[in-house]
Design brief:
By secondary structure, the chain is α/β, with parallel strands linked by helices. The protein has two domains: about 90 residues, Translation factors (Elongation Factor Tu (Ef-tu), domain 3, Beta Barrel), CATH 2.40.30.10; about 110 residues, 3-Layer(aba) Sandwich (Rossmann fold), CATH 3.40.50.80. The chain has nine helices and 15 strands. The strands form three sheets. A seven-stranded mixed sheet has the order 10-9-8-7-11-12-15, sandwiched between helices. It has a six-stranded antiparallel sheet with strand order 1-2-5-4-3-6. Helix 5 runs parallel beside helix 6. The longest helix is centred in the C-terminal third of the chain and has 19 residues.
């Protein structure tokens, strides 16, 4: 159980793992996630279940090695095991035939978009996809989304691939062209999701976002993942992770996301110093 059966680096410091866990593979639905620990005393890491194969008993996880714990996770190899893997957690995405659905993924946020795009497609929606990254080498899952979407657009900040600019620029161009969009799902950095929500608000388009606040236990007991939606406190782990983008208090979300920024920076510096010392 929890054995890694496949590993690949799909972009710099971005990895795709297939992990053997038959129970989760059978039960997971689009939008749900797991929380894992690599070892005793390790940090609890929430990751979206990108795909599953019930017959093989595997789930697919994609993550960026950006902090100490995710860098430790990236060091694991095929046939090694993850200590703890809890899930599926969170509410499944509400799926229906809206007509034309547009899914937007910013950076690593493209990974959580993929299973939801597949479910929207299976429900009969016409699907438009927009994915963005800082540069071409950081664009992920383009082929997988292209296979699902009737139309896929790519944007890069530096213009090295696709449209130069942000995913919101592409969405705005589509709307100004008169493309009919009935539903929008956006996943990515909070500023990106806020910009998408503000854009669609003016067009009256139902918009959902997947939030990534600080999360510890995944059951609603610790309160670490609380967010404000429509003036009410919600917990992303049990009430979400998806919420109406027009009701989310993004200012509060981003403030809470930065709570441990200094500690994270200090940990990164300590790790860097340790590596330098060991190399000497």
């Amino acid at each position: 159980m929890n054995r890694i059966v496949f590993k690949e680096e799909i972009a710099p410091n971005t990895f795709r793992y297939k992990v053997h866990h038959p129970q989760i593979a059978k039960k997971r639905q689009a939008g749900q996630f797991v929380i894992l620990r690599i070892h005793e005393g390790g940090e609890r890491i929430p990751l979206t279940i990108v795909d599953s194969d019930p017959e093989a008993g595997t789930i697919t996880l994609i993550f960026q090695a950006v902090g100490h714990s995710t860098r430790e996770l990236a060091e694991l190899e095929v046939d090694e095991s993850i200590l703890d893997l809890a899930g599926p957690l969170g509410k499944p995405t509400h799926i229906e035939n809206y007509g034309t659905a547009c899914v937007l993924g910013g950076g690593y946020g493209t990974a959580p978009v993929l299973p939801i795009a597949a479910a929207l497609r299976d429900a009969g929606n016409r699907l438009i996809g927009i994915v963005g990254a800082r540069s071409r080498e950081l664009v992920i899952l383009e082929e997988e989304l292209r296979a699902l979407c009737d139309r896929l657009e790519v944007a890069t900040d530096d213009g090295s691939y696709g449209h130069q600019g942000f995913v919101t620029d592409v969405l705005q161009s589509l709307l100004e062209e008169g493309v009919k969009i009935d539903f929008v799902l956006a996943v990515g950095p909070a500023p990106m999701m806020r910009a998408v929500s503000e854009l669609t608000r003016g067009y009256g388009i139902k918009t959902m976002v997947s939030l990534n606040p600080i999360m510890v236990d995944g059951t609603g007991m610790c309160g670490g993942c609380r967010v404000e939606v429509g003036g009410e406190t919600k917990f992303a782990c049990v009430d979400g992770p998806e919420f109406d983008g027009h009701l989310v208090n993004f200012d509060l979300l981003m403030k809470r996301q930065a709570t441990y920024r200094d500690e994270e920076q200090a940990a990164a510096e300590r790790e860097s110093h340790c590596k330098l010392d060991s190399a000497m």
